[in-house]
Amino acid sequence: MKGAWSSAAGSSSALPEEGVVAEHEYDNAYFGLSYSFGADWTQRYEGPPPSDAGYYVLAQIEPRDPSRNAELGHFLIAAQDLFFTSTSANGALQFINHYRDRLGEEYLVERAPQKMMLANREFVRLDYLSPASGLHWHILATEIRCHVVEFVFTGSNARSLDRLTAGMNTMLRQSGSAPVCIKDLANSDKLLEREDPVFIEPRFNQVPVRIVIDKEGKVKHMHFLSAFPEQARSVADALSEWRFKPHLVNGEPVEVETGLLFGRAPRTGIAARH
Question: What SS3 state is found at 161?
Answer without folding.
Answer: helix
